[in-house]
């Protein structure tokens, strides 16, 4: 008798809980569906921001209009919730790398050394955008028939903290000479401009007599060698190992005249294969020393001369791209491919 009563109570209890359990199961299905659509929207926003940011730099200058256009075009290549996307809010501006919770600073604005060009993409499925809100299947009993959803992404072009093999040219310039020929206050930061020629100022790296601020020297990078054949190999093939800000490079004096000829052959005066190069910047380069890298700069090599003079004639530039490098370094004119910032 007692057992029958317990069975009856269990049946009643189950009958009371069944609608709740059914509702929770239904909600689980809806939540999984909403999360899937959210991921699709986020992927679309990320892809569009990266596509736009990849066009931010052309010929060393931010190209805002093209970057925004490419981000808009990329949205139309993605779908979410079973429908192709067609609309997104795309904004161009600067992103401050030092802020933990950043916010895109819209144009026009004057960037600081920590601000990098960026593209922000916000894509939504709402009553007015992209085929409406995201529908649900089983939440109707709660009078919920659809849910608005938004995803946001920011991508930009940063200067690398690490450069991969095959990028660094075997010349190191001093931090003080970089500071003298780089305009941190221009928008965006770039080379100091000669008022007469209206072109980046020209200077020489080589056997400097300025002990307070030596301009630059040859470097064998991570290997201590002043062999002419080894330096020639670095001129042709660049760094054999990845290098990062904080790593040390070997500064070499007494480099052979032939290496200046090698550099001239590929300079702007030669076949132009080393006209624009990425080089390490270091604080201590006076003499045969092992000096830590403070950043990576972009140089345009105009020509090189051996013999008694021995110099490499250069200009600062912003036309160097560091391939698929990593990390974030100081903005010295070299940029990596677009990367997500938020």
Structure write-up:
Helix 1 runs antiparallel to helix 2 (64-75). The protein folds into two domains: 8-156, no CATH class; 162-337, no CATH class. The mean pLDDT is 83. It has 342 residues and is of the alpha+beta class. The strands form eight sheets. The protein has a five-stranded antiparallel beta sheet, covered by helices on one side. A five-stranded mixed barrel has the order 12-16-18-20-19. The protein has five helices and 24 strands.
Average predicted confidence as pLDDT: 83
> What is the terminal separation in angstroms?
66 Å
- Tell me the number of helical segments per DSSP (H or I, 4 or more residues long): 5
| Structural class by sheet pairing and helices | alpha+beta
The proportion of strand residues reads 25-35%
Number of beta-strand segments:
24
How helix-rich are the residues, as a percent range?
25-40%
Low-pLDDT segments, ≥5 res: none
Looking at the structure, what is the overall shape?
elongated
List the strand order in the largest sheet: 6-5-7-10-24
Largest sheet report:
5 strands, antiparallel
**How many distinct domains?**
2
Q: Radius of gyration, Cα only, in angstroms?
A: 29 Å
Spell the H/E element sequence. Answer: HEEHEEEEEEEEEEHEEEEHEEHEEEEEE
């Amino acid at each position: 008798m007692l057992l029958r009563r317990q069975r009856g109570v269990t049946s009643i209890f189950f009958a009371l809980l069944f609608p709740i359990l059914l509702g929770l199961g239904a909600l689980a299905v809806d939540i999984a569906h909403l999360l899937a659509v959210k991921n699709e929207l986020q992927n679309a926003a990320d892809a569009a921001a990266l596509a736009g940011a990849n066009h931010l730099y052309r010929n060393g200058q931010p190209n805002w209009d093209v970057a925004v256009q490419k981000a808009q075009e990329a949205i139309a290549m993605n779908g979410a919730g079973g429908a192709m996307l067609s609309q997104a809010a795309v904004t161009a501006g600067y992103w401050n790398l030092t802020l933990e919770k950043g916010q895109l600073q819209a144009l026009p604005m004057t960037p600081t050394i920590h601000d990098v060009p960026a593209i922000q993409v916000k894509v939504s499925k709402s009553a007015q955008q992209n085929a409406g809100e995201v529908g649900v299947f089983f939440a109707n009993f709660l009078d919920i028939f659809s849910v608005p959803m938004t995803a946001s992404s920011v991508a930009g072009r940063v200067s690398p903290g690490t450069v991969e093999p095959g990028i660094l040219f075997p010349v190191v310039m001093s931090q003080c000479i970089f500071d003298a020929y780089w305009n941190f206050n221009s928008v965006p930061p770039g080379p100091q401009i000669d008022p007469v020629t209206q072109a980046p100022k020209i200077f020489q790296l080589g056997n400097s007599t300025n002990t307070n601020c030596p301009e630059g020297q040859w470097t064998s990078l991570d290997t201590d060698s002043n062999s002419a054949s080894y330096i020639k190999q670095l001129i042709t093939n660049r760094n054999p190992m990845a290098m990062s800000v904080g790593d040390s490079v070997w500064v070499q004096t007494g480099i052979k005249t032939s290496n200046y000829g090698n550099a001239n052959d590929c300079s702007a005066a030669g076949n132009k294969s080393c006209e624009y190069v990425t080089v390490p910047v270091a604080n201590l380069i006076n003499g045969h020393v092992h000096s830590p890298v403070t950043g990576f700069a972009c140089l345009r090599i105009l020509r090189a001369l051996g013999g008694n003079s021995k110099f490499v004639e250069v200009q600062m530039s912003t036309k160097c791209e560091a391939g698929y490098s990593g990390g974030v370094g100081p903005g010295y004119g070299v940029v990596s491919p677009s990367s997500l910032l938020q």
